[in-house]
Design a protein that fits this description.
Length: 355
């Protein structure tokens, strides 16, 4: 058995899900449990030829199967989404749309277990298929083709959770949600704050503070995502080109709690504009969040530009980092370039030396 979100699964359970965006309605799940959730493998057995993947050792009479894992944070891999057991009385909404800002809010505040309240029918608000950030403090808009209703997110969560908990009381595959006054008030206060200034997610570090963003002990979780795979983590001696040029480069970071969950460099180019570099993240949704929030304040991804340059104030160091975009350095005048050329030194080694 394993748990994903609100639901618990065992081999042979009838499930629904989407695979590569295709809704799979008639399927069974088979689980190979290793004892460690990160290496537990599961298969969706079904009859859709569009989603034919790795063969399950048990097919339950179906023609095709699709393998996936569940990450430590509970997210499913290999394009499997919206997995749930087939439970009498709970239906998936045929149409479903959630404003990206609501998704960011739930993800950022580690409230991913609330997503099913928006995706499924629990006997209340079933007619609504679209959710947007509302105009009132702490409110969201529930919409369908005929009408729109504005309601506080906290009230929506409480009422939906109470209905879901009724199902959980008689079904061992569903986990109950917290509906305490303290939890509901927390959701309201955080959502009001998010509505007023969601740009507060992004913090900017410069100078020696940049080293905080390259220290593994400051990261969310012990491993996972591209954040922990960065080859420059904990190699502070290689980062002088960043820490010694505070007027040209900052490190944008996103905190979840008091831990860094995503980071990327923001460069001030010779055209006077700022550009964001590659995003390193613990969870994949943080990449888009970082790009979107920076774009809203006029900081565009350098990957969308054909050529940019940065004039450094200091550039002679014993060691240099492996750089993602500005990796061509003219050592005569200290100019970094985001274009490939054989004329200048390349910051593309992990040993701290210039190639």
């Amino acid at each position: 058995m394993f748990q994903s979100g609100l639901f618990t699964y065992k081999s042979g359970d009838r499930v629904t899900c989407t695979i590569k965006g295709n809704l799979i309605k008639d399927a069974l799940i088979h689980i190979i449990n290793s004892g460690d959730i990160s290496t537990t493998r599961a298969f969706i057995c079904h009859n859709d030829p569009e989603c034919a993947g790795s063969s399950s050792p048990v097919m339950y009479g179906y023609r095709y199967s699709w393998a996936f894992h569940m990450n430590q944070d509970g997210r499913l891999t290999d394009d499997v989404r919206d997995l749930r057991p087939e439970i009498n009385g709970i239906e998936r909404k045929e149409k479903y749309h959630m404003d990206i800002e609501i998704q960011h809010f739930l993800n950022f505040n580690q409230l991913e277990n609330l997503f099913p309240l928006f995706r499924y029918k629990f006997g209340i608000f079933d007619e609504f298929e679209s959710y947007e950030v509302g105009e009132g403090d702490g409110c969201i808009k529930l919409k369908n083709d005929r009408k729109s209703v504005e309601i506080k997110l906290s009230r929506f969560v409480r009422q939906m959770a109470l209905k879901l908990n009724e199902f959980a009381a008689t079904n061992k595959y569903i986990s109950k949600l917290d509906v305490s006054d303290k939890f509901i008030e927390m959701i309201h206060n955080k959502f009001v704050s998010y509505q007023k200034d969601n740009s507060q997610m992004i913090n900017f570090l410069s100078g020696e503070d940049i080293l905080k963003g390259y220290t593994r002990a400051n990261y969310l979780d012990k491993d996972g995502g591209t954040l922990h795979k960065s080859c420059m983590v904990d190699r502070h001696d290689y980062l002088n080109i960043y820490t010694q040029n505070p007027n040209q480069v900052e490190l944008a970071v996103v905190y979840i709690g008091d831990k860094i969950a995503a980071r990327c460099f923001v460069w001030t180019a010779t055209d006077g504009k700022k550009y964001s570099d590659r995003v390193y993240f613990r969870h994949d949704w943080l990449e888009n969040l970082m790009k979107e929030k920076l774009r809203k304040v006029g900081i565009l991804p350098i990957s969308e530009e054909t050529f940019k340059s940065v004039q450094l104030e200091k550039w002679e160091f014993e060691y240099y980092p492996y750089a993602d975009n500005f990796y061509f350095l003219d050592r005569k005048n200290g100019t970094l370039l985001s274009i490939q050329t054989d004329r200048f030194s390349q910051l593309r080694n992990t040993n701290g030396r210039i190639a």
